Amino acid sequence: MELSIRYLQKSKGCVMNFRTLCNVPSRLNSTNKVLKICDFEENARSFRSISTAEKIARCKLASLYRLLYISGWAEDVLNHVTLRLPSKTAISCNNDNQIDETFLINKFGLQYWEVTSSNLVEATLSDDAEIVSPGSNCGPVGLNKAGVVLHTALHRAREDVECIVHFHQTDVQALSALKCGLLKTSLESCILGGVSRHSFRGITIHQEERKQLRQSLGKTNKVMMLDNHGAVVCGSSVEETWQLTTLLVHAAKSQLTALQAVGGDESKLVLIEEETAQRTYETAWSGNLHGRDLTDTVSHSGEKGKSIAGEGIENEALTQKFGVRLFNSEIRRLDFMGYNTGLT
User: What is the tens place of the pLDDT at every residue in 224-270?
Assistant: First the structure.
């Protein structure tokens, strides 16, 4: 494989992305530069005083951006992934002493592969998303207005919405244009549970659309199709959001393939009965995909080169929440590829 890659690197054109498409570890090429996800050491002065919880949050979110990029689900400098920051001492951001929660978002203009733990922007969840921390390597720091309107509206709509992915993955966007919406044609579609819909009103830059977005999402659903505009996935953690995102992509691909096979005739599809779909959903969320496993351990020694995720926990059995196992496996893959997530 290494010899093949070295040969291909001499070629031009479509071979340029061979390594990324095949998920080949970058360490096979010692001259290949890798932009580390966890780059606090390079920006130690700026991040000396932040909490361990915030460091973990930044590393997880930056890792999620990188996963979306290498999966081919990013769209240039568009779309956003956001994360509500852990509770901290209240910050007075305005002259009138209004106190706002804060969240992390990417700088407008960076591609997903460029997002790191230190260059994420911290902003308030207010309508104007006032910048609290511009992140590292900042010239002019801009936030995309459409991203601010969409993400702040949904974060503020429900306390359980901690992490949000908005994306235009091709199959998901195609599905968002179908009147039938997401059908129960696969296991993945069942695990997603209820799916909301929001009609397309153009680019989401208008403040009045916030209320409509909140109403469309509803009180419990975690996935919302944006008609003709992709989808948003709203999870209670980065891990849950990534699992739901992968499920949505698989469900969309499966449905579109099935529809293509029957010439678009929905009547020829075998749909999963509602009772079975509900039972599948309850099984998945009650333990089949998370649950307690005595083989799960966590080691946070705090030694150099180890995870920054904590200290003092050794060989403790964990109750894994939805999406944790999948996300942890992805973190191991990113670290194997040389991206240094700071989470292992």
Answer: 999 999 999 999 999 999 999 999 999 999 999 999 999 999 999 99
Averaged pLDDT, 285-302: 52
Least Cα distance to 223 among 257, 189, 254 occurs for 189
Structure tokens, 100: 């706002």
Q: Can you tell me the distance from the alpha carbon of 133 to that of 145, in angstroms, rounded to the nearest whole number?
A: 17
C-alpha–C-alpha distance, residues 116 and 102, integer Å? 18
Residue in the block written with tokens 């974060």: 155
Largest Cα–Cα separation, the chain:
64
From the CB of residue 16, how many other CB atoms can be counted at a distance below 10 Å?
12
CATH among 1.20.1250.20, 3.40.225.10, 3.60.20.10, 2.40.30.170 for 37-289: 3.40.225.10
Radius of gyration of the CA atoms of the chain, in A: 21
CA distances from 165 to 82, 114, 241 (A): 7, 17, 7
Instruction: Report how many helices (DSSP H) and strands (DSSP E) the chain contains, helices first.
Output: 10, 12
pTM score above 0.85: no
Show me where the domains of the chain are located. 1-33, 37-289
